[in-house]
Write a structure and sequence with these properties.
59 residues; alpha+beta; Alpha-Beta Plaits
């Protein structure tokens, strides 16, 4: 089970995928952000920069 969740109120700004491409990916077919790697440290940093607080990290 994933410890990193992208919540439904994500606005697809892409900051997480732009800054942490090894952890997040913008899926153009979705459209949605996908977690492609369970890098908790990067996810926590991305969570802090998310403008709508749509990244949840369960530690």
């Amino acid at each position: 089970m994933s410890k990193i969740k992208i919540l439904d109120h994500c606005v697809l700004c892409g900051k997480c995928a732009e800054n942490y491409p090894n952890t997040f990916k913008l899926n153009p077919e979705g459209p949605k952000i996908e977690v492609i790697n369970e890098n908790i440290d990067e996810a926590l940093e991305a969570s802090d920069m998310c403008p709508v607080s749509a990244i949840k990290v369960e530690e």
